[in-house]
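Before any further analysis, backbone shapes were mapped to integers, which produced the following:

***
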Amino acid sequence: MKLGCAFACTLLIAVPTLAADPPIEWPQFRGPDGTNSVATGQLPERLDDPQQLLWRTPIEGKGWSSPVVVDGRIWLTTALTHELTTEQLAERVARGEIRDIQTVAESIDLRALCINLETGAVLHEIPLRTTDAPQPINPLNSYASPTCCVADGRVICHFGSYGTWCLDAKTGERLWEVRLAIDHGVGPGSSPVNFENLLLLVCDGMDQQYIAAVDLKSGLIAWQTKRPPMRSTDGDTQKAFSTPLILQIQGVPQAIIPGAQWLVAYDPRTGQELWRADGGDGYSTTPMACYVAGLMVFSTGFNTPEFVAVDPTGLGDVSSSHIRWRQPRGAPTMASPVVHGDRMYSISDRGIFTTIDGATGEELSQLRIGGNFSASPLLVGNRVMLCSREGRVTIIELKERPEVVAQYDLDAQLMASPVLLGDCLLLRSDRELLCYRSRSGVE
């Protein structure tokens, strides 16, 4: 255990302090309302200014879950991985359990962490489960990639098929757990979202695909709905990892969830399917859908990714009636787009920043940033923050033709999406959580 050292290092660095005003909450993946990481506040002026680094806290283990923050407490998850011996690895290869380009482990320790927003001190470190011989995962993934969700004084820590835990947000007490086992193929990815104390969980595995709602108070399954049938019979092309987007469309709540082949909208209260649109043969769909210019836009995933825009006012199979446009350029397979006005902005896996007219699908501009991207962009005013796997943070100003206004290289890998609360910026790297504060926001 290295938490004692982490604690000491954190307190030595924490020279400035947060202002007295309470921070804005960030209770789930992609921001306060789970739409598209639109933040209100102020980015730090310079990430290379030591006075703007409020604190840094080492995180043991590996996890790409983004931080969530409620009541001045940060929650995230991590997985401590214990490696296989050479003999164990040879045995699993011989049994055909390991596909190409996969990471394997002897066992994993799943944990939840609660960190004080003001000081970076670790308040709770909660062991949840040790799992022996976990399924292999893609090297770009982790066993702790889904982001937590905080609702009604409870924290939901989701690890896909390895389990979902509900914790008391003040004490860290374990209240309940549920396990919905599927074959992810390359590890877990979809994050839970809350709607009226129902937790929506996406279970798009290689073996089965369905959406489930779990009661926040009891942990009991409230409803479960199968995904539409697919043309492909290969389980590898039936899996997906997207997170639900919940919006009111013509006064009716819809949970819009991309999957392999289909974009589907559900009634989040009952699980009833409202409409579906066939996007093609894409799979391993990861980006969330976004709502722009009255249309629901999603990326189709692997094979040849493209954006597809759907009018969300239909019923049933709307594939031939409500698809409004398709755009093959700029579609990511990992990072979710952001929306500013009637324009959508995306960063591709290979670092192309694309501006698209939301009403027509017309590509308005492209800007080559370079690098490789998994983290979703953060939109603040007329600026977008991008974090690459190589540790480069890029700030883009949204003009008629967007331009780079700042870049910073951190000695770290960035896969988790950034979070901004007021003028407090949280960045999770492969080994620590960093908190920056603009000079105007420190004492």
